[in-house]
Specification:
two-stranded antiparallel ribbon; alpha/beta; six-stranded mixed β-sheet; Aminopeptidase; binds zinc ion; 10 strands; about 280 residues; single chain
Length: about 280
C-alpha cells in the first residue's frame, strides 16, 4: 500500500536464531537472552557492504507523517543493545529482574553483519528516523537510551521505561548462523503482563508485521504471520504496555545486511515501523 519497494522473497530455513530483547544471534555471551539453533551453513562475506555509521536523522515516512495525527500519543522506542556494551562485559552481565520472578543478564552486545556493522548501530539509526517521523506526526516519543555510545540500559529498564507510553516497540536485527536465513519476525510476551495487555501486544505485532510485509520478507518459519510468543524476554516481560520486539531482518544474510547498512534501507525499516504503529491506533 504505502511501501512497495521490495518484492517479498521467501527463504525459509530450519536453522533459526531466536533472540531476545537483549541479544541477537551468535557471539552473545552465556546467559544472554538468546536461543540459538545451530546451523550447518557458514556465513558469507559481503564485499559490497560498506559500514554506515549513524545515519542522519530524517523522516522515516515524510509523506505519511503529513497526513497522520498522533497528537496525544506517547510512543516508546527501544533501540536494541548499545554501542558501548561490548567494552563493558561486567556491566552487561549483571543480573537484573526478568519480569517473571527470576533474573536475566543486564544486556548483550547484539549481533553484526559479516562486515562487522553492529546491530546497535542499526537499531539506533532506525530509531532516530522513526522518532523523527512520529514527532512530525505529533506524537511524544521516549527512547530507552539517549545515544549509541553508552552501556545498557539493562533489559528490565527496557521494559519499564515505557510505563507511561501507549505502546513500546523494540528494534532489533537477528543473527542466525546460516546466511540463507532471511526475513523479519516479531515477538510478543506470552504470558503477557495481563490478558488485556497480551492481546493488545499481539494486535500490535500483527499491525507491525502487516506493515513490514509491504516492504520486507516475513520469516514464516516463525508462523504464517512471522510472530512468535515467548515467556523469557525480560524487556517484554517488564513492559506494562502493549509491546513487541521487531527483528527487522537477518544481519548474516547478504541482501538484508546491505539494506541494514544503508541509510536508504534504514529509512525503509523506519517507514514500515511507522506505518505499523499508525495503523495500530
Ligand atoms: Zn538484538
Amino acid at each position: 500500500m504505502r511501501h512497495r519497494l521490495l518484492a517479498p522473497v521467501l527463504v525459509l530455513s530450519a536453522s533459526l536464531c531466536l533472540p531476545g530483547l537483549a541479544a541477537c544471534g551468535a557471539g552473545t555471551e552465556p546467559g544472554a537472552e538468546t536461543t540459538t539453533h545451530a546451523s550447518g551453513a557458514s556465513p558469507s562475506t559481503d564485499p559490497d557492504s560498506a559500514g554506515t555509521s549513524d545515519a542522519e536523522e530524517g523522516a522515516a515516512s515524510a509523506s505519511e507523517s503529513a497526513d497522520v495525527d498522533l497528537s496525544g500519543k506517547t510512543i516508546a522506542i527501544d533501540p536494541g543493545h548499545n554501542g558501548g556494551n561490548a567494552d563493558n562485559p561486567a556491566k552487561i552481565s549483571e543480573p537484573v529482574p526478568d519480569g517473571r520472578g527470576g533474573t536475566k543478564a543486564c544486556n548483550t552486545t547484539g549481533t553484526s553483519t559479516n562486515s562487522d556493522y553492529p546491530e546497535a548501530d542499526f537499531t539506533w539509526a532506525v530509531a532516530k528516523k522513526l522518532r523523527h517521523s512520529l514527532e512530525e506526526a505529533g506524537a511524544k516519543v521516549v527512547l530507552s537510551r539517549k545515544d549509541n555510545t553508552g552501556v545498557g540500559p539493562c533489559v528490565d529498564e527496557r521494559g519499564t521505561f515505557a510505563d507511561d507510553a501507549d505502546l513500546m516497540v523494540s528494534i532489533h536485527a537477528n543473527g542466525s548462523e546460516s546466511s540463507s536465513v532471511k526475513g523479519f519476525h516479531i515477538i510478543v510476551a506470552d504470558p503477557g503482563e495481563d490478558a488485556k495487555t497480551e492481546k493488545a501486544s499481539v494486535s500490535l505485532a500483527k499491525s507491525l508485521g502487516s506493515a513490514m510485509g509491504e516492504t520486507f520478507t516475513p520469516n514464516q518459519a516463525y508462523g504464517k504471520d512471522a510472530i512468535s510468543r515467548r515467556p523469557d524476554l525480560a524487556g517484554l516481560n517488564n513492559a506494562s504496555v502493549p509491546a513487541a520486539i521487531v527483528e527487522c531482518g537477518e544481519m548474516g544474510n547478504r541482501e538484508e545486511a546491505k539494506l541494514m547498512e544503508s541509510t536508504s534501507g534504514q529509512s525503509k525499516y523506519a517507514a514500515a515501523l511507522f506505518d505499523g504503529i499508525v495503523d495500530w491506533f
